[in-house]
Amino acid sequence: MNKPNVLNTDEAKLQVGEYADSSQHVQTPSKMYNSISTSAHRQHKALFLDRDGVINVDHGYVGHYDDFEYVNGIFDVVRMYASANYKIVVVTNQSGIARGRYTEADFHVLMDKVKKDFANNGISEIAVYYCPHHIEGSVAKYAIDCACRKPKAGMLIQASQELGIALIDSVLIGDSWRDIEAAHAAGLKKSVFLSEKAIPTDSIIEGVRKIQCLQQLTAIE
Residue 73's closest CA among 210, 184, 170, 173? Predict the structure, then answer.
């Protein structure tokens, strides 16, 4: 059984692009202004959330609030983890930016409204990391091979470094197998696969719970 690919400090910096040569077309994950509190000397647990398909119904390239429809049960699940002192961190591929479907500014406007919705439901602190890249994008500056697009672990690793998160003690909820692969690559021991699809039969990833709806999550993983 292969062990999770847990990166040391220098390897992690390389994966998120801190030392990357610009000629290699590697960039760090993008993030919104995250006012979430942290301590440089404390390692926090985190609940990592994919966005489309977990927080909101995936209608395809959702870049505006009018198209944003919350998944049933998301506020209850996030409140449960927040009340247990987990940091809440969104890690989302947003290739719609690279494809010209919406802009980074559109994404920020949308997610600011989403943060307010969570605050109105008792969850006051949420950090958001996103990947605006896709190698086949139509917007040149985003059409690159990056270090942050899941299944790569760049967004999780950068969040762990900036927010003082212990990845090994954290959990991720994702609706795509690439979310689970990103969690595994970052060294998480637990993840939740929210999907009607089966876990791939050739998967070697352990610690994955399969659910079909968020209401099945009634306790901390």
Answer: 173
